[in-house]
Every structure is written in structure tokens, then in C-alpha cells.
Amino acid sequence: MMRVPSLIPAALFCGAAFAQPADTVLVNGKIHTLDAKATVVEALAIRGERIVALGRFQQVKPLIARKTAVIDLHGRTVIPGLIDSHMHAVRAALSFATEVNWIGAKSIGEALARLHEAARRAKPGGWLIVAGGWTPEQFAEKRRPTQAELTGAAPDHPIYVQLFYGWAMMNPLGFDVLAIKEDKDVPPAGKLERDESGNLTGGIAGNSATITGLFARLPKPSFDEQVEGTKQFFRELNRLGLTGVIDPGGFGMPPANYRALQRVWQNGELTLRVAYSIFGQGRGRELEDDQALTQLLPMGFGDKWLRFNGIGENVAWGVYNVDNPSEAAREQFYQICRWAALQGMALNIHWHHDASVGVVLNTFERVNREIPIWRLRWAIAHLNDASSATLERMKSLGVGWAMQDAGYFEGEQWLKDKGADGARRMPPINTALKIGVHVGAGTDAHRVMSYNPWVALQWMLDGKTVGGHALRGPEETPTREAALRMYTQGSAWFAFAEHERGSLEVGKLADLAVLSKDYFSVPVEEIGSIEAVRTLVGGRLVYWKR
Ligand SMILES: [Zn+2]
Questions:
Q1: Which of 354, 320, 123 is nearest to 219 (CA)?
Q2: Preceding peptide of 427 cis, ω within 30°
Q3: Ligand 1 centroid distance, CA of 11 (Å)
Q4: Which residues contact 229 (CB under 8 A, 6 or more apart)?
């Protein structure tokens, strides 16, 4: 930042409107405000945590004083800070300082090199853990690594590599440390894979309970490592222009796992705004847990940095990834929803298939007949094959849709399941916007997807999988502006924050990113490689490219 000497006589600041100079002024940029008229301005002034002026340079010039930091943007593009409407960020952060990350690795060689590098820094005999965020489709080789390759990269360390929630691979040392010899050692549904001669390959196939159970046996980062991981992960998100997330909890996230986040918040060191919900952990006592936990945690409790945002994405285990739940499970789900409505609580729920979404919507409608829910901003996450009829029902209930780039990794599977015509409209982004559903964009990172918002934005605009197959049709492809709106004010809605964030307007929080390339004019295939050169949250510079 450079400081410019004030050329303006002090008397000019005596008027009430311009009584105080700005702390920071951005000049000479293409600042996309995303206000209702999509105004683009060249200059913006910040005082404290808020925007106090924007427009032509002449309009902010009177606010520049000796103490004002003036940032010359050199024509760069500025956007409102990005907000991911569905990222398991609190969990990802806990282990960010201690895990190995394969996000964005373009070949098995590159992935193995990251393991090798991590081994050089790890404690002797320490675990190397890759906890998802990758797919074989991203590798030039289009396959999973072999056990021999893992061992070759780090011979002296136990290694655990997870693929989504259905498969993991460990090296022989890892098997030894966890005493895994046969299928019964990886409950509840694990199968140790074998080659034709019957030798273990290192692969373990199973369901989400298998993989979650296996992961829970790995050593946990210490509290200090969790705090460090949280700070590092949030800076990494800032590097990509993210200034906020809506966090839906996750497997293995009991209340104690929020202590690191709370510590960073207490220390005033958050660089990302987090709105989080309670993910039901105890099967059969979801309602009791919610009731107990929220006695001192009313809806909306917190501040602009850390705020409690209701319950979900697991509301009740009996309807989590269950397309045809029992009567008892449906009734329990209804009781929890009804309780949430009575408390004025937001609720978000994970759902995959349109064919069974009646389980959710019938329940929401039943509750809504007793207690109107449209002010409560309930939301459904995923639902990539949502029909128009479903979106209409969501609209009339005031239920939002948290939409992610799952198709970037899973598009080839969608093509198999739904055919080319089905995949053309997945997810039905423009239909949802036309119907008027609130749509927030995001990633669902980091076990099942990369957290990179630019990869998600590129995918929203070209519909291409990581393997390069273009699947979505132009009829469901939004404009660049519409895509960005979903990733800013669209997501802010889910945290009841669209009046504070998501666009750059006088009075709003100064959450913004200065971009490495012009999102609005670069070829679409370059969007995925955009990053921030500076990110500000509440007027504070939280990231700058050195
Ligand atoms: Zn989910």
C-alpha cells in the first residue's frame, strides 16, 4: 500500500458527510459492485469495516487524507468477497496443517510428490493423510494410485488416502499400525480388496460409515495444530477471494471440535466469516441434542465473524441418504422440523435425489401449515437433478437451494445414471433462477470436492468435468454475472447477511477481492486459475500476493 500526501485543505473535511477521512481507498480499478444495476466504478473508500463511498475518483478524493492507505489497482477487477454456501470448512480447517492435500494435482506423479514432500517435514513414523478432495479423473493417468506407488513416495510412514466416502487406500505400514488384517477389522461394511492371487492391494471399499469409522482411528491433530490449521485454511480461502462460508457441520464433528474455531475467533484472528449449523451426531437423540445445545445458543447468536445458523445438514440420521425412510424416521424428522420452526431456527438438509425429495418437502409443507417457515430460510443442499415442480415447491415455501459443483468430479457418473439429456440440465441453475428460488453457490469441500471457488465458477459456466467432458447445456448455463451473484449475495442469503455482504455498496461491510485476472473478460477456460491478489474482510487486508 502506498500513502499519498493529502493535497486537500483540512477545511474540506469539516462538512458533516465527509467529516472523517477514509482508512483505505481503492483507485483506478474495475470495481464490480454487483448492486441492483450491476454498476462498475473506478474507486471505493472504506472507513472502519464499512464502505463509505464509491464511484469516480473525484467522488472519493475528498476522503483521502494523510493517514489514508491508497491502493492503486492498476486497472484490476474487484468483486465482492466470495461466500461458499455449503463448505465443511470448520472440519477441513482442523487438519489443514497436518494433512496432505491433493486438490488440483494434475497427475499421480504430482500427487505422490506432495506425499514425498510431506514425509520430509513429518515426524519420524508420523501418519500421512490425504482425506479426500481428489478424483482419479483429475489425473492424466485417469486411475487411482497403487499401494506400491504410495509406499515408494514415503517408505517410512503409515499412509491413508481417502476417495470420497466409498474407498480408501493404506500402505502395509498403515495396516500394521491399525492392526487391519481382514474385513472384520474395517467395520461396518469394509472389504479389503485383493488382486487375482489373493494378496491385499491396500484398497478398502465400504460405505460412508466404514470410511468415517476408519478415519476416526487415525491420530487427531493436537489442539494447537487445529488452531494453526484453522488459521492456515482460512488464509488459503482468502487467497482465492473467499471472505465467508456457510458451514453445515459434518461427520465426526461433536461440539468439542468447534473449540479451535472459537479460539481463533476469541483471539480476533478470524479472516473469514463463518455461519455454522449443528449437524446431528447422535443417532436417535438428534432432537434432544439440538434442544440441549441451543439452550444457550439461540438462532443468530454470535457476531459478524462467527454466527450460529441453525441445524443441518444432518437433521436426522433416519433420513440422511435414505430415499425411502421408515414411518418412524419420517415422524422423527417431522418432530425436529416442527421444533426448529417453533424456535425460529434455520435448517438445512442434505438431499440427493429429486425422485425422493417429497420426504423433505411433504414434511416442510406439513410444518408450514402449522408454523409458517418462509422467514426461516430453510435450505436443501445438493439435489442436482431438481425438477421444476420441486423448485416451484421450494420457492413457495421460501426454501433456498445450496448448489455445488459436484458435477465437476461426478459428471461422468451423472451421464451414466441420467443419460446425455438428463446431464444437460444438471444442475438446473437457470430454471431455479427463473422460478425465483434463492440459490447459493459453493463446493461441499473438502472431502468430496476442492474448495476452489474459481474451479466451481468455471464449471458453472462451461459445465465441464475435471476430465474435460462438457455436459450441461446452454439452457442451464448462467451468465458470468449471474454465476458471481450466486457466489456472493446468493450465498449471503443463507446466513441472513445479504443486507451486509455480497455486494459493494455504501454502508455495507468492506469484504472484497482484487483479482489476478478479469473474471468478466478472460476466456472461460482461464476462470479456474483466477486467484486474489488482495482480499479484504471488514476493510482489513487478510491476504495479499507477495
Ligand atoms: Zn451433503
A1: 123
A2: yes
A3: 57
A4: 93, 94, 95, 96, 97, 98, 221, 260
What value does the mean pLDDT of the chain take?
94
Q: What is the 382 CA–ligand 1 centroid distance (Å)? A: 7
Contacts of 412-415 with CB under 8 Å at 24 or more apart are 412/137, 412/465, 412/467, 412/469, 414/384, 414/471, 415/469, 415/471
What is the per-residue pLDDT across 353-406, written as a single tens digit (0 to 9) for each? 999 999 999 999 999 999 999 999 999 999 999 999 999 999 999 999 999 999
For residue 513, give the C-alpha cell. Answer: 477481492
Q: Please enumerate in sequence order all residues whose Cβ is within 8 A of that of 19, keeping only pairs 6 or more positions apart, or say none.
A: 13
Whole-angstrom distance, CA of residue 84 vs CA of residue 53? 27
Q: State the distance from the centre of ligand 1 to the C-alpha of 351, rounded, in angstroms.
A: 7
- Tell me the one-letter amino acid at 421: D
Instruction: Pull the grid cell for residue 529.
Output: 486459475
Q: What pLDDT does residue 350 have?
A: 96
349 CA distance to ligand 1 middle (Å): 7
Q: Report CA(350)–ligand 1 centroid distance (Å).
A: 4
Distances (CA, A) of 474 to 296, 350, 431, 519: 48, 27, 12, 19
Taken in order 519, 522, 524, 530, the sign of the CA dihedral is negative
Q: What angle do CA 253, 259, 260 make, to 5 degrees?
A: 100
Who contacts 188 (Cβ-Cβ below 8 Å, separation ≥6)? 206, 207, 209, 210, 213
Q: Is the pTM of this model over 0.70?
A: yes
Whether residue 446 is preceded by a cis peptide bond, meaning omega within 30 degrees of 0, is yes
Pick from 339, 348, 344: which is nearest to 290 by CA? Answer: 339
| Integer Cα distance of 472 and 407 in angstroms | 9
| Range with the poorest average pLDDT among 15-24, 136-145, 184-193 | 15-24
Give the span between the Cα atoms of 159 and 126, in whole angstroms.
9
Q: How far apart are CA 440 and CA 432, in angstroms?
A: 11
Closest alpha carbon to 387 in 437, 337, 461? 437
Distance 88 CA to ligand 1 centre (A): 9
Indicate the pLDDT class of residue 19, thresholds 50, 70 and 90.
low
Measured in Å, residue 313 CA sits from the centre of ligand 1 at 6
> 300: left (phi > 0), else alpha (psi -120 to 50), else beta?
left
Q: Write out the H or E segment, with its range, that includes residue 82.
A: strand 82-84
The closest of 164, 315, 309 to 245, measured between CA atoms, is 309
* Whether 361 contacts 331, CB under 8 Å: no
CA of 390 relative to ligand 1 center, distance in Å: 18
Cα of 402 to ligand 1 centre, how many Å?
10
* Contacts (Cβ under 8 Å, ≥6 apart) of 411: 423, 463, 464, 465, 467, 469, 471
How remote is the CA of residue 223 from the centroid of ligand 1, in Å? 26
Strand 43-47 vs strand 50-55: parallel, antiparallel, or unpaired?
A: antiparallel
